[in-house]
């Protein structure tokens, strides 16, 4: 694509991986539309870096996603780089996670991603050029116990990305999946805030399960040093600016511990491995 200033749209621009990616692409001269609810943070960023356009949207609300769709589709300058990054996690026993909470999670992590992609594709198709980066997770390829619904959203992001990659390649549009391991952002704090109450009010039966899992995960995370969001933002920047990005990029802790074994083991072997790693192997309540 010539020397014209390109437009990137990044969701989840107010924090963590999204924020770092906004800064990197703005520094590279992209015009960057930064989407999130906490506008103050993006407005502040825009006072430090040129070319950042703050755009408020609550992606859990279909009406606000529709307004964003309209805003994108009506722009005179097409979005040529889309980073679908907004997302969060909820935890809890499947039996107890309220369905409205699961629906909200799917609105943010999956449905808004699909709708925003639909808004950007016509412009990309017309240009015969564009890059779509979708944030999955290592949990896009396996699931931790008590985190099945989050993993379900990321498994869906993987499937959408895999199909779309092949579907739009004939138009010169590239689709990249990013699979981070554990990264030091507000992600964990948000997950705790969204689910602590649910976990505390859990059925007695689930207590030993939670305790065993908590101990095992505490031990595991105690041995890890979590990288900051720059690790993933750098990969996104590389993928966006590369002539031939890889279909999938994986980085961060938990890749070695879980993702690699998942790809090496059969289903039965990995099921046992997961139960053992999470302290649940042989547990009887
Ligand atoms: N950190 C990790 O360990 C990790 C690992 C694997 C994958 N990931 C994935 O990486 C992506 C970025 O996460 P992060 O680690 O950077 O987390 P983060 O620091 O918590 O940032 C999440 C971003 O998503 C936005 N967001 C959340 N709910 C939203 C809503 N309803 N409407 C609009 N925006 C919303 C937040 O903006 P507002 O709150 O201002 O709206 C924020 O900018 C997510 O898709 C996550 O699943 C993270």
Please provide a written account of the structure.
The protein is an alpha/beta fold and 285 residues long. It has a single domain, classed as NAD(P)-binding Rossmann-like Domain (Rossmann fold), CATH 3.40.50.720. Helix content is 52%, strand content 14%. The protein is built from ten helices and seven strands. The protein has helices at 16-27, 39-48, 62-73, 99-127, 148-168, 187-200, 207-222, 230-241, 255-264, 267-277; strands at 7-11, 31-36, 52-56, 79-84, 130-135, 173-180, 248-251. A seven-stranded parallel beta sheet has the order 3-2-1-4-5-6-7, sandwiched between helices. β1 (7-11), α1 (16-27) and β2 (31-36) form a beta-alpha-beta unit. The longest helix is centred in the middle third of the chain and has 29 residues, at 99-127. The radius of gyration is 19 Å and the shape is globular. The relative contact order is 0.13. The mean pLDDT is 96. Bound molecules: NADP nicotinamide-adenine-dinucleotide phosphate.
